[in-house]
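Need residues for this backbone.
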């Protein structure tokens, strides 16, 4: 039976059985963005106290930099509820930053040097020190500029009731927990194969401030005196200029089984890397990195999708996966949408959900080394040249026109969208239809729109970003607190998070060296 026939059989079985099972999943968003000054430089101020503790707040934290804020929605049963919560977090956070702005672009603002990007501070507790040392290590290993890039992560899990039905459909002999982990890894492998589709549709970083790359780079052209751009790029954030840099090019973490995934990550955390050994571990009494191995911790490995399980206090991500299997997926391929006040729109979220379900139902064989090379080629090609007419990708060792492959995927996704919409359309089919149209009109993609706005407005990238950010500031500050259904929850959490940080700091009993040894043990 061919892949398409197996896919159609699974889809038909779900439609005939309990189609509503697919509609009850959980979804959430993690949105990063820089705090910047009104003139477009990274803010040097500390994380606002009104937003609580970056160490323990469940909804507002920081990523690499003290200025790189992260908004986190809890799991929600619907896309509108997810976007409502994200909107409410923005409305709560804007007044707390005074005259500063939330940068609306994935690629950074004005940078004068790496010292412009302050490493995040989480307090004096061991867990806080570990987070800061890890970030210091990232700066030494890859440079701080790369850590100022921002994106949106989409978290998704299918409902618990889905899995027994899926086990019956697949005639699985293993227990439901094992099937669930194996099925989520099917999704991971297919996302790796086809993540280029998301870069084309939602990439919005075809340009970068010259300060990010003073000397330019291959394929970049001057847009003006302050901006580089790549004429057909979709997402420089996801290219070799951003997260997919050469530093991790030789590191491949298999997703062919949960055992291989955990084993490869664990091995990388314990395998010495001469390049990182030269950085030093502790110099003049100050920790430079957590270790000098290929990875300091699991999260250092960048992938467009991660299988996740909520970890217990002090538990490593791989230990959590070994303990309970995969709980949900984190899709990390989305640029910030500069044309949305919250950085993401409903069409992206609905399409992303359809895409993940499609990747589950479409056959997903193991990925070989040869296919891994094709995956890397396709990712780089679409990130750098996705809107190039006649672009050719590689599939199973053969060349294939990107447009033809995209239409094949989108046709199958349309059937998944119809199942998700069910008898009461929720917008899934419309989202797939609208995205499919972007392959016929590449000038309507977000990346093309950004370049058009820059050219028509005669603006540099920084001027463009500041104009958007100023407008979004006015938008959110004009909203009434009474319209924010989560305001009280966010305010209470901010204060409670400060109390939790104090408790953690008061109850540390180990030295930092002992704490690290226990963590890695």
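Answer:
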């Amino acid at each position: 039976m061919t892949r398409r026939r197996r896919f159609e059989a699974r889809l038909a079985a779900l439609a005939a059985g309990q189609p509503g099972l697919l509609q009850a999943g959980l979804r959430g968003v993690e949105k990063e963005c820089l705090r910047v000054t009104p003139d477009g430089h990274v803010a040097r101020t500390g994380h606002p106290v009104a937003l609580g503790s970056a160490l323990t707040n469940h909804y507002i934290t920081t990523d690499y930099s003290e200025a790189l804020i992260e908004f986190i929605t809890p799991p929600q049963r619907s896309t509108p509820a997810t976007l409502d919560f994200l909107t409410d977090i923005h409305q709560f956070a804007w007044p707390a930053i005074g005259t500063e702005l939330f940068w609306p672009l994935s690629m950074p603002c004005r940078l004068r040097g790496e010292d412009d990007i302050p490493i995040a501070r989480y307090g004096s507790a061991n867990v806080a020190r570990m987070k800061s040392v890890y970030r210091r290590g990232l700066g030494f290993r890859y440079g701080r500029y790369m850590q100022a890039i921002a994106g949106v992560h989409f978290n998704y899990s299918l409902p618990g009731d889905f899995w027994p039905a899926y086990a019956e459909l697949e005639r699985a002999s293993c227990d439901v927990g094992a099937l669930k982990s194996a099925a989520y890894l099917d999704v991971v492998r297919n996302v790796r194969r086809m993540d280029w589709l998301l870069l084309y549709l939602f990439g919005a970083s075809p340009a970068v401030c010259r300060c990010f790359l003073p000397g330019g780079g291959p394929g970049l052209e001057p847009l003006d005196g302050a901006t580089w751009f790549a004429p057909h790029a979709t997402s420089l954030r996801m290219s070799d200029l951003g997260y997919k840099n050469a530093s991790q090019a030789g590191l491949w973490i298999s997703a062919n089984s949960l055992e291989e995934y955990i084993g490869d990550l664990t091995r990388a955390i314990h395998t010495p890397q001469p390049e990182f050994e030269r950085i030093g571990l502790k110099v003049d009494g100050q920790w430079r990195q957590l270790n000098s191995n290929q990875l300091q911790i699991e999260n250092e490995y960048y992938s467009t999708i991660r299988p996740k399980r909520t970890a217990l206090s002090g538990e490593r991500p791989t230990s959590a996966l070994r303990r309970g299997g995969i709980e949900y997926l984190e899709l990390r391929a989305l640029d910030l949408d500069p044309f949305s006040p919250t950085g993401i729109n409903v069409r992206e979220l609905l399409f992303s959900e359809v895409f993940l379900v499609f990747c589950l139902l479409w056959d997903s064989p193991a990925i070989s080394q040869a296919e891994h090379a094709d995956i890397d080629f396709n990712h780089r090609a679409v990130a750098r040249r996705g809107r190039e007419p006649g672009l050719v990708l590689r599939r199973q060792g053969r060349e294939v026109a990107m447009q033809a492959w995209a239409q094949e995927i989108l046709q199958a996704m349309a059937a998944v969208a119809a199942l998700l919409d069910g008898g009461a359309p929720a917008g899934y089919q419309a989202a797939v239809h609208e995205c499919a149209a972007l392959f016929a009109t590449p000038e309507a993609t977000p990346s093309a729109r950004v370049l058009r706005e820059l050219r028509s407005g005669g603006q540099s990238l920084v001027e463009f970003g500041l104009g958007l950010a100023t407008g979004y500031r006015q938008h959110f500050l004009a909203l009434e607190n009474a319209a924010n259904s989560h305001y009280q929850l966010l305010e209470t959490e901010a204060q409670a998070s400060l109390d939790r940080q104090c408790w953690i700091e008061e109850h540390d009993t180990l030295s930092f060296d002992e704490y690290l040894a226990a963590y890695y043990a």
